[in-house]
């Protein structure tokens, strides 16, 4: 089957590559000429385990192609996936200009029946706007060619995107058209071999499903962060509470890890966008707003703990920072808790000496060269000459630590751990002060 994907960002590239890998003929279209040139050479500019080798394999087989020519993309296939970005507008609502620009392009070039598939995370009602944009573009040409629009949200986690695409729990397709159902069944047949993962529903429900899933997961995290903050004040250990509640299958163990706040390109943006959609239909989404507020506060927590440990004086201090990415196995620092921490340290007159296994290039790109940001080659270098250590990302390699060595190398014996990586007793035995999340300072 032939498939066209507009957008070679995270979602578009993973989708296109995975679909090529199961035998479809895929063409990916992007306006970024530099990116397309690199992709044609098999160079993947984002970090996702396994993706680059998969791109190379499918380029070599000829099943995966890249182009900057939208007309070529539109002509190539009946299925036209839109997987371009939906960045937040100033008011938090999703900016649809890129999605609608692709819709317009499809309407401008199409010569026969097409199915426009919304893969981007878009507010409820976007499929209708895509539909009218394509129709307007056709009308401008004086054409009346048949087409359908369906919603097919993605549920990929960065760092596990290939696994999520190939073995995800479900494939949601929002459409009422039998013709679309047949085409989407054919597209996703390779992933439904063991059991039928396809869930057909109406378009608006599919669009809301995506937001509801992310909002539910974000709610679990904010809830646990609230419990952690309470545990700190009530003298309890949230890690024991986590195990205690997770054992109830109605609650489950997943996404109840307290930490320094959720980040990334999805949860913060999607929770805000859904709250914004609610406001547009005159509904005050109190829970969503609270989830967002708790998260904002949680991201400030690390700095507050650090600030207290230094008696409010971070002027001239060097803070070792382990982890910049919003979570392990990605180089993504969008809305990462590390950024809130760094920016607060800088504001207080301190400097940051940071290491991340993947995200340092991205960090340099975002913040540029500056005296108060020193990026070093490994976690040991980050600690050398530093006053205290803060941990923002739970990369595997941060989990084992020689606390005696740390104690000897930090001028202040302080670890602020945003991911609860260590046994507090072991840290304290070495004579370090340990500020974890929801575990009290005295465990
Ligand atoms: C998330 C969803 O998990 C995907 O299902 C969804 O498809 C994707 O957004 C999207 O909308 O595209 P992702 O942003 O890659 O995926 O990252 P997650 O693994 O969900 O983590 C998000 C944040 O929550 C991270 O900052 C992580 O550290 C934090 N988190 C996660 C916690 O603080 N505690 C937890 O228990 C779990």
Automatic annotation (TrEMBL):
Substrate binds at residues 155-158, 210, 255-259, 263, 327. Its EC number is 1.1.1.22. The active site is at residue 266. It is an enzyme of class 1 (oxidoreductase). It catalyses: UDP-alpha-D-glucose + 2 NAD(+) + H2O = UDP-alpha-D-glucuronate + 2 NADH + 3 H(+). The keyword Cell inner membrane does not apply. Belongs to the UDP-glucose/GDP-mannose dehydrogenase family. This is UDP-glucose 6-dehydrogenase.
């Amino acid at each position: 089957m032939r498939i066209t994907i507009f957008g070679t960002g995270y979602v578009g590239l993973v989708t296109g590559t995975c679909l090529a890998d199961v035998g479809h003929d895929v063409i990916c279209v992007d306006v970024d000429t530099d990116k397309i040139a690199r992709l044609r050479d098999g160079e993947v500019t984002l970090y996702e385990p396994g993706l680059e080798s998969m791109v190379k394999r499918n380029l070599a087989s000829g099943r995966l192609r890249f182009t900057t020519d939208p007309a070529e993309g539109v002509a190539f296939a009946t299925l036209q996936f839109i997987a371009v970005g939906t960045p937040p507008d100033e008011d938090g609502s999703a900016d649809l200009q890129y999605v609608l620009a692709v819709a317009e392009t499809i309407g401008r070039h199409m010569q026969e029946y097409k199915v426009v598939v919304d893969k981007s995370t878009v507010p409820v009602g976007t499929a209708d706007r895509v539909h009218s944009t394509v129709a307007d573009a056709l009308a401008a040409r004086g054409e009346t060619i048949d087409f359908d629009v369906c919603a097919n949200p993605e549920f990929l986690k960065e760092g596990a995107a290939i696994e999520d695409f190939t073995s995800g729990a479900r494939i949601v397709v929002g459409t009422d058209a039998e013709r679309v159902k047949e085409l989407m069944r054919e597209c996703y047949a390779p992933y439904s071999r063991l059991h039928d993962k396809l869930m057909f529903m109406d378009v608006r429900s599919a669009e809301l499903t995506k937001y509801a899933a992310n909002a539910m997961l974000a709610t679990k995290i904010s809830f646990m962060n609230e419990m952690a903050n309470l545990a700190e004040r009530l003298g309890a250990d949230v890690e024991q509470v986590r195990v205690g509640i997770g054992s109830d299958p109605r609650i489950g163990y997943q996404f109840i890890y307290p930490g320094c706040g959720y980040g990334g390109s999805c949860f913060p943006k999607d929770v805000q966008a859904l709250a914004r959609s609610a406001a547009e239909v005159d509904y005050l989404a109190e829970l969503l707003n609270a989830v967002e507020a708790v998260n904002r506060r949680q991201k400030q927590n690390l700095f507050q703990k650090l600030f207290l440990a230094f008696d409010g004086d971070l002027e001239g201090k060097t803070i070792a920072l382990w982890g910049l990415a919003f979570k392990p196995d990605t180089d993504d620092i969008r809305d990462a808790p590390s950024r809130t921490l760094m920016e607060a340290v800088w504001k207080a007159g301190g400097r940051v000496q940071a290491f991340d296994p993947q995200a340092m290039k991205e960090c340099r790109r975002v913040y540029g060269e500056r005296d108060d940001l020193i990026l070093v080659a490994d976690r040991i270098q980050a600690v050398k000459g530093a006053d205290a250590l803060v941990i923002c990302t739970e990369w595997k390699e941060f989990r084992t630590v020689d606390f005696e060595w740390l104690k000897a190398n930090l001028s202040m014996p302080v670890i602020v751990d945003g991911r609860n990586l260590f046994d507090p007793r072991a840290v304290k035995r070495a004579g370090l002060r340990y500020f974890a999340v929801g575990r009290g300072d005295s465990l």
